[in-house]
Amino acid sequence: MNLAQRRAIFLVVSLALTNSGRADPSQWRQFYQRQEQENFRQSQRSLDHHYRYDPNPRSTPANLEPLRRQLTDWAASVEESRRRQAQDRHNQALVLVEFFRESQRRAEEQARQATLARWNALKQQAANGDVETSYRVARLIRWGQGRLPREQKTGDEAARPWYRFAAEKGHADAAYELALLLEKEAPADALRYFTKAANAGKREAILPAAELAADGVPGKLPPNPLEALRLYGLGAAADDAAVLTTGAYFLLRQPSVDAERMAQAIAWLERAAEREPAAAGKLAFLSLHDQPGRTHDHARAVRLARAALQKQPRQPDALLTLGAARIDGLGGEAKDGASAVALLTQAAEGGSLRACYALAVAYHNGLGGLAKSDAAAVRWRLAGAKLGHVQSMLELVVGYRTGVGVEKNAAEVARWLVAAATGGSVQAMLEVAGLMMAQDPHVKVGMNDLRAMAARAAHEGNVTAQELYASMWRDGFGGEKSDAEALAWFRRAAENDGQSGQYFLALHYREGVGVAPDVAEAYRWMRRAGEAGHGDACAQLAWHHATGTGCTQDVAVARDWARRGAEAGSVLARRSYGAYLGDGIGGARDGPEAIRQLTLAVEQNDDRSRLQLAQYLATGLPGVPADRGAARRQLEAATRSRDREVAGQAQAALAALDQSKPVSLDGLRIAPAGKKAGDEKKKAPSIYESLQIK
Fold first, then answer.
1. From CA 191, how far away is CA 646, in angstroms rounded?
2. Predicted local confidence at residue 61, as pLDDT
3. Which residues pair with 621 in a beta bridge?
4. Which of 214, 209, 274 lies closest to 241 in space, CA to CA?
5. Which of 65, 263, 333, 590 qualifies as a cystine partner to 325, CB 3.0-4.6 A?
6. Closest Cα to residue 475, out of 683, 691, 219?
7. 601 close to 575: Cβ distance less than 8 angstroms
8. What is the arithmetic mean of pLDDT over 348-364?
9. Which of 38-42, 167-171, 444-448 is predicted with the least confidence, judged by mean pLDDT?
C-alpha cells in the first residue's frame, strides 16, 4: 500500500467518523496505532529489498548501517509528521462535530420553546372560554396527538378537566366523550353528561343515556324510568332505528304495560321494523297475540318473522314467533311439534327468555302434538330461570315445593325465590321476607339485601314494593329507621292508588308520626283506602264514624263500615263488627252472626277477639244460649297470648267464672269504638297492623 492509498483511506475514515457524529477518541487512537505499525513494516520491507537485491553483489561490502539508521529515522520523522497531521484533522473533525451538535441542540430548544409557546397560547385561549379549543386540547391530551411539550401529561385522566370545561359550556362531543370516560367509575356523572350531549343534539349519546337511566347501576345509580322514557323519545324524534327498538323493548318490560304504553311501543317498532331485524322480530311476536286496543294478525306475524330472519338468520324473537305459530298452527303454518321445538330451541340458545318459557309451557300442556312431560317443562323453566326469566323462577319455586317434575327441595325453593326477588318480583320479596323472619337456613341473603331489592322495585314504580320499602324505613329492617322516609314512600304508594299506602298514610296523619297530626287528612286517605276495599281501612273508618274523628259521628255508618271490612276479611273489622252485632250498636242485635264473626277473627289468631267471644259465650246472646264450657276454653287459650294485657284479662275472667256467683264481664269487653275517652294513647290500635313483615 503506497502513501497515496493510505492517505485516501485516512480521509475516507475521517469523513465517515465526522459525518456519523461518533468521533470516539479510542477509535482514533486505534486507527493511529495501526497506521504507525504499517509505516514501520513498510520501511523494513524497503531495507530488506535493498539488501536482498543489491545491483552490485561482487563489490566490496559497504557499511550500510548508517544508511539503515538514516532511513529508519527518516521513516519515523515522516510517520510522526503524518500522525500530527492526522491528529490535527481529527481535532478539527471533533470541533466540527461539536459545532453541529450544539447547533442541533439550539434548534431543538428553539423548536421546544416555540411548541411550548403555541401550546400555552392554545390552552390560554381554551381557558378564556373558547369551547371548541378546549375540546381540541382535551383530544390532543387524551390521545397524545400533535406536537405537545414534553412536560405535558397525556391520557384520559389529564384530559378530563378540559373535556369537563367544554362539556359544561354545552359542547356535545365533549360531553359525550367525557361520559364514556366516566361510565364505569361514576355512572351518575356519566348519565348527566350523556344527557347533556343528547339534549345538545348528539345522537350517539341518546341510546347509552337512555339505557343507563333505564337500568341504573346497583349501589351507584338508581333507575329512572321517566327520564329513560324521555330520552327514548328524543331518539324516536330523531328517527334512530336502534333507539326506537330499544325504547320499545323498554316499554314492554315495564311492570305494568297499559294500553297507551303498548300502543307507543308498537308504533316505535313499526317505524324501525324495515331497518332493524330485532324490531321486526318483536313486532312479529306481538302480532301473534291480542294486545290492548289491537287484535292479533297471525299472517302478518309470520311474514314479519320471515323478513327478519332473512336479514338476521338467528333473530331470537323471529324464531320464537315462527316456533309459537307452528305449535298452534297459526298464520298458515302447519302444526309441527318437532319443527316448533327446533325453532324455539334456536331462539332459546340465542338468549330468548320467552322461548324457554314457551317450551316449558308446550311440554307442560302437551301442545303441538308434543307428549306431556313435567320433567322437560322443568328443564326449560330452569334454562329460562338461569337466563333471568322471573316467571320461570316462580314456577320453579312451585315445582320444588310440590315435587311436580322434580324432587322437593327446600334449598332450591329459597334459592329461586331470592333470584326472583333480585329480578324484581315483589311477590318473591315478600316470601323471602317471610322465610327470613322464620329463620330459614336456606336463605343466603341478609335483610339489607332484601331492602336493596325493595328499593330498586320501589324506584321503578311498583306500588307493592313502595309499601314494603316504606315499612322497612318505618321499622328499620335492613338499615336505617326513619318515620319521614316511611311517610314519603307511603305517600308515593298512596298517590299510585296503593291501598296499604293510603291506609298507613292515614294512620301517620292521625297519629302525627313524621308529620303534624291532621285528622281531616287522615280521614280523607282512610276513606280512599276503604272505598278501594282495604279491610283494615274499613275497620278504622268504623272507628272514625263511631267517635266523630275527622268526620260526622254516626254509629250506623260506623257499623256499616265494620261490616264491609269484615266481608273483606279484616280481623280488626270482624272483631268490631262482632261487637256491634252482639251489643246492638248502630242496629239490631244478631247473636249468631256476632258469634260467627268473632269465631272467624279467632281463627285468624286474634286473641282480643277471644275475650269478646268468651264474654258472649258466658252470658249468652239472643239466639245463642250461654255456654260456660266454651267460654272457659276460649279464656284458657287467651291466657297463653303473647299480649300480656290480654293474658291478664283472660286470667281475671277465668277467676270470675270459677266463683259461685259469676261476676259481670262487662269491664273486659272490647269496645267497638276502638278508643276510650281519656285513654287515647294507651288504647290506640297499632299504627302498623296489616303490613308487618311476619
1. 57
2. 54
3. 624
4. 274
5. 333
6. 691
7. yes
8. 87
9. 38-42
